Amino acid sequence: MCGTFMMVSSEELDPSEILPLYYTRGQIEQVFDIAKGSAELLQLGLHSEETFDGHVFVSFLAVIICHLLQRLFLNERMTTSEALGALRNHKCKLYDNGDMVPYESKKKQNLCYDLIKVKPQKKHFDKCPSIW
Questions:
Q1: What are phi and psi of 80, to 5 degrees?
Q2: pTM: predicted TM-score of the whole model, two decimal places
Q3: 22 with 69, same domain?
Q4: Which of 16, 71, 108, 132 is the most buried (most CB within 10 A)?
C-alpha cells in the first residue's frame, strides 16, 4: 500500500477543501469523545430541554477549557492533570476576619500560573465561607 484513500461525497467541493474538512471532522469527533468521557455529556436524569441545553453548554465550555489547557501545557511537557493537581495543592490561610492569604507557591505551581497568566492574590471575604 502507498497510503492512498478515496473520499466520495454528494457535495461539489474543490479538491483542496476536502482534506481540511476531513481533518476537522476528526477534531469534532475528539471533542465529543472528551465531552462524553470527561464532562459526562450524556448524563441521564435531566428533567427539561432547558436543563439539557444548559448542561450541553457548560459541558462544551469545560471541553474547550480542557483543550486550551492541554495545548498550553503541551510545550512544558506537563499533562493537564499534572497542572491541575499542582494548582489544587496550592494552599491558603483563611483568617477569622475574612482575609485569605495564599501560601508561597512552588516551582510547578509558578510555571502553571505564568502559563495561564494568573497571579495568586490575597482576598477578603465579608462572610467567611464555611467549606473550601
A1: -60, -40
A2: 0.54
A3: yes
A4: 108
